[in-house]
Amino acid sequence: MIKIRYILPVLIIIFSSWLVSVSLTRIRIQTEAENKLLNLQKEISPFVWNFEDDSDVVSSYYKYWQHQQEKGFLSAKKGSNPRISLNFSSEIINSGIHGNLVIKSPQKIDAKLLIQVKQQLDDDYFYYSYNIPLSDKDNNIDLTQLSWIGLSDVSEEKKPFKWGELSQKISSIVLIFENPNADIMIDEILLPYSSTPMTEATTAINCDSDNIETKNILLSDINIFELQEYCLFPSKYMWLKSHLIEKFPDSILKIKGLNSWEQPEIHKINHQYSSIASINAVLYVYVLLVLVIVYLVFSRKPKVIDSRVSTMCEPKLLKSWLFILLPTTLLFILMLWMNQFNLAFLNAFPQYFVWAMAQQFFLGFILSEKIFFTNTSDYFYSALASALIFATLHLPSFTMFVLTFIAGLFWSYSWLKYRRLLPLALSHTLLALVLYAVIDDSVLYSAKVFQWFWK
User: Fold this and answer.
1) Domain locations along the chain
2) DSSP secondary structure, 188-255, as one string
3) What is the domain class of 48-190 according to CATH?
4) Of 30, 62, 43, 67, the residue nearest 257 (C-alpha)
5) Which pLDDT band holds residue 166 (cuts at 50, 70, 90)?
6) What pLDDT shows up at residue 76?
7) Which residues pair with 133 in a beta bridge?
């Protein structure tokens, strides 16, 4: 018989997890929208790199620079050909809105600059400007007047590119300082608006962004979209935001009738809105609260221990592998058929298998056996408690919460019944990899957890 004192807290935690996930996601998106609008109202460029910390320089380029944090600038020795990658934090910009690049230095820069841009982060195609002479403290470069040449790593095909055309998308910019005749010092780099963009028009959309292509939207403007309805899953909000930015760079997503917790602040886009302390604090406090509640509810010593489950059993090897891998194989084949039997995702198998081993050891041996089974002496309730903790650690994506709760329940019960790590890790690896390959972004969005979910 299923005990109410176990099941009721589980149902409450599942419902509250959904509520917290959706609420935090909505607040985060609205806070970002208000901050972007404040930047626009004050005519402040959202893309400013002032090197307050090392995150403004891509790690692979650290070797070129010395970070003078107390003085607020970067320095590089002459003759080192230093590079800087301007980080947009997964944003895509419209070259029709940002036509100038400003490089500020406490002293004159005596070097030539080569600019490399990509239109998509996963592109094999690069566009290079011709060498630009730098000879001042404040170097204002008109990107629309530069000539560009396209080069590919995989073919000799050349693609046309002109900075400033409508809908011309840019995902990354790398600055290459060639043959500097003196040490280089950089205070700040800006990518300002080339003109004040229009923001009067707001486009009403639904959770699926239906028919936005048919509306009178100008790609040269900042497009403001207002979500009119309540999406059921956080992944839907995040997919919608990502989808709109990809189709309409520099766009803003607002949510109808929602106000953020905090007053809007001027934020650098490349410092990431996911660093909003209040949102992350609520998420971590909620997860901690769930961990405490689950432990208190499921770790009470039973008055009578069922002799049938008081000790861990040692089953036959074949039986344990069949119990774990038979349903895994059937589900794997079904999802593989949905993926048209494309096995490319298995390239990540070796690395993920090691990670799955670690997770299964934590889920099975630590949580299920040592913490909960020791106290409850019940396979089902021990597995239920472990699965609930496992799922909670995958918030704020409620999609991941549900999927990992179901899978965690099966894996935890299988560990308690058979104590076999290898088939469990194999099941975890196969199902996780094929899941990421099959499920659409609008449903899953991201397999990342905690504050990384926002990025």
Assistant:
1) 4-10+280-454, 23-44+197-274, 48-190
2) EEE---SS------EEEE-TT-TTGGGS---TTS--EEEE-S--SSHHHHHHHHHHHHHHSTT-EEEE
3) mainly beta
4) 30
5) low
6) 81
7) 112
